[in-house]
Each structure stands twice: as C-alpha cells, then as structure tokens.
Amino acid sequence: ISKGPGNSKSSKSTAVPPGPPVYLDLVYIPNHSNSKNVDVEFFKRVRSSYYVVSGNDAAAEEPSRAVLDSLLEGKAQWDSNMQVTLIPTHDSEVMREWYQETHEKQQDLNIMVLASSSTVVMQDESFPACKIEL
Name one GO molecular function term (predicted). Predict the structure, then answer.
C-alpha cells in the first residue's frame, strides 16, 4: 500500500476553502440548506445581504436547523452588523421553530426573515415566490 501524497486524506473536510471573506448580494444556500455541505465557516466566509433557504423535506433534514444556527453563529463573527435577509422558499416546520426560538438573536444580529406566503400564478401553474430588491 502506497502512502504517497495522493492517498492521504485529511480528517476534516471543509466546504469553503481558507481565505478572506467574500461579499455577495444574493446567495443560494447550497444543497437545500443541508448541514452536510454548509457550516459556520460557510457563513463566516460567504457574507451576503440575502440568503435563499430552500428545502422542504423534513426526512432529509432540509432545511437543516444546524445550518440556520450556523448562520447566527457565523454572522456574530462578522466585523460589521450589516442587515441580512433570509428568504425561505417553503414554509417548513424547521424554519418556523427556528424563527420563533431565535427571534431575539436574529434582531440582535440584524437578520430579517421574509415570509414565504406569496404565490405566483402563470397560466395553469402556481408556485411560491417572493420579491427581492437589491
């Protein structure tokens, strides 16, 4: 068995490579906000005015409560208290519980959560939507 550099695996995988923070206007949280791909480091490094939280599958833990908590923890480490808007694409039980249980901390961190109760109807199709102004 060869133990060359190509065969070594690090004990910790990081979804976001090391480096300075990146500032964006709008970020779609990857993989339906599943905690396998998004952690505190993501929110410390990927800083956005708007985050879209998709996912409506409680069995797959999407969206993940851990991801929502990671947003709070990561945002608390930013050097500014810029406003952040969280845009859920579905009205999930996880989202509602997180919103209610952490509302005071959200306010302290200048995080606003948009309601996701708007519906767009086009021809024979309807789907949830919300308006984003940048």
Answer: microtubule binding
> Hey, what are 102's tokens?
């952490």
Contact status, residue 34 vs residue 62, Cβ threshold 8 Å: yes
- Max intra-chain CA distance, the chain: 62
Higher pLDDT, 16 or 93: 93
Name the helix (H) or strand (E) containing 23: strand 22-28
Count of structural domains within the chain: 1
Q: Dihedrals φ, ψ of 30, to 5°? A: -60, 155
Q: Considering the domain boundaries, does residue 77 fall inside one?
A: yes
The answer to whether position 5 is within a domain reads no
Look up residue 91 and give its two tokens. Answer: 């009205």
- DSSP annotation string for 47-102: EEEEEEE---BGGGTBS-HHHHHHHHHHHTTSSS---EEEEESS--HHHHHHHHHT
94 belongs to a structural domain: yes
